[in-house]
Amino acid sequence: MKLSIIIPVYNEAAHINELLFYLHKHFRYSKDCEIIAVDGGSTDGTQGLLKQEKVKLITSQKGRGIQMNTGAKVAKGEILYFLHADSFPPKHFDDFIFKEIEKGNQAGCFKMKFRSSHWWLSLASWFTQFNVKFFRGGDQSLFITKKWFSELGGFHEEAPIFEDVCFIRKLYREKHFTVIQKWISTSARRYEENGIARLQYHFWMLYVKNWLGASPDQLLEYYRVNIR
Question: Which residue(s) pair with 110 in the sheet?
């Protein structure tokens, strides 16, 4: 059994080396894992840095859904693991995923904590331990068997945002999703740049608009106007 870690990147030169070093250091079974970085047209030297690393670098059109689907197509693993460039999974994350697959769990994520001591972000992190779709998001990463990913049609490529949330909703409709009770940590930089209360408000508004049936273009316009 092989695990393919798929990381969509765009202008991540300041952070990507740190993540790749961390992943290589914390594999349990490195021979059974591959890392695929899918670049969406970076202009800050990200591609040059990736060419020096032990990763498979491919390029695609910009768009996280498109990039992750492109990575899935070239993946050699029977298990796909989609990871954001600013999220760090727990030590021996590959072993935890393999064990869940062996139990018969075809898809899932880790509970998540922000790299911040702010009380609100700590509270939001605490809720991610519960297996409820409302508490799910792409920053928590996602593992899924390649077979099931293909059967479900992959990520919606026309969605400029919420592509991961929409796909995870499919998984919950199938009633086959697990939350591994180990922490993945993710950056709080968007909250720090936008202000925690302000950004949380706009995220909630996006969720409501999405739930009420707003089009992808309407969601993207709201995001561009209100979130840096």
Answer: 180
Q: Of 209, 223, 200, 228, nearest to 123 (Cα)?
A: 200
How many other β-carbons are positioned within 10 Å of the β-carbon of residue 6? Answer: 25
| Closest CA relative to residue 222, chosen from 138, 136, 133, 160 | 160
Question: In whole angstroms, what separates CA 108 from the centre of its chain?
Answer: 11
3-187 fold: Spore Coat Polysaccharide Biosynthesis Protein SpsA; Chain A (3.90.550)
Q: What is the pLDDT of residues 98-114, one digit of tens each?
A: 999 999 999 999 999 99
Burial readout 52-70 (b: 16 or more C-beta within 10 A, e: otherwise): ebebbbbebeebbbbbbbb
pLDDT band at 161 (very low <50, low <70, confident <90, very high): confident
E strand intervals along the chain: 3-9, 33-39, 56-59, 79-82, 87-88, 107-114, 142-145, 178-186
In 2-150, which ranges are E strands?
Answer: 3-9, 33-39, 56-59, 79-82, 87-88, 107-114, 142-145
- Counting Cα atoms < 13 Å in the Cβ hemisphere of 12 gives 21
Mean pLDDT score across all residues of the chain: 92
Residue 113's Cβ-side half-sphere holds a number of Cα atoms within 13 Å equal to 11
Residue 180 token pair: 């591994």
Evaluate if pTM is beyond 0.90.
yes
Ramachandran angles phi, psi of 58, nearest 5°: -130, 160
How do the domains of the chain map onto residue ranges? Answer: 3-187, 191-228
